[in-house]
Amino acid sequence: MDRSLFIAMSGAKQTLLAQTNNANNLANTQTTGFKADLQQFRSMSVFGPGYPTRVYAMTERPGTDVSMGALQTTGRDLDVAIKGDGWMAVAGKDGQEAYSRAGDLKVTPEGFLQTGAGRQVLGQDGPISIPPADKLEIGRDGTISIVPLGGQASTLVVVDQIKLVKPQPGDLEKHTDGLMYSKQGAVLPASADVTLVQGALEGSNVNAIEAMVSMIELARHFELQSKVMKTADENAAVAAKLMQMA
What we know:
The protein is α+β, with helices and mostly antiparallel strands. The chain has helices spanning 2-27, 208-245, and strands spanning 40-46, 54-60, 71-73, 80-83, 87-91, 97-100, 106-107, 113-114, 122-123, 126-127, 133-138, 143-148, 157-161, 164-165, 172-174, 180-182, 195-198, 200-202.
């Protein structure tokens, strides 16, 4: 009896974890450059002394869907989108180099170039700093040019170049801060094969309809597993009464 209760209990717990992951995807359908987290269920044996006598359900995040989201034209000079494969280098946790496709850039009062989420954008020699300027342009290769404050409109000065990388599929993994990191912990080299589009943003690649359907399915699974636990508990109570009568 306890076997069925254990299976249903573990299944209900993992369903809640899967629902949390799905809810996070759904909450980020409008987040610039967001990549959906994948999930899957599988059965696992419980190993210990002797032969395995129990199995339990396990949900895991096998990876991240890195397919490209839809491009949205904004016309804003500080908005950039990566066309095709590639990532933009930003400062992650503990100053470690991380990678993102969120191109909603801004310049802080201190002059640092950051993403909309406040991550510092990295250039050739670290965080990019923008001097006071009347105009700013970002080239297809990530080169940042400005018209200095009070300068002539025809005078463009190159400030820095956004570091763009193009890792092999599977070389990156998403951490809890939502950024991608190298699985080996290494700093990836810059690539000249990555192209930016100025005045556009890449939207989230989460399919809202699929996420909603998944939410309904997971809710039904949890309800079914809860019923199994209740039935197992009722059967155990009946069995205990029969033993008392004997």
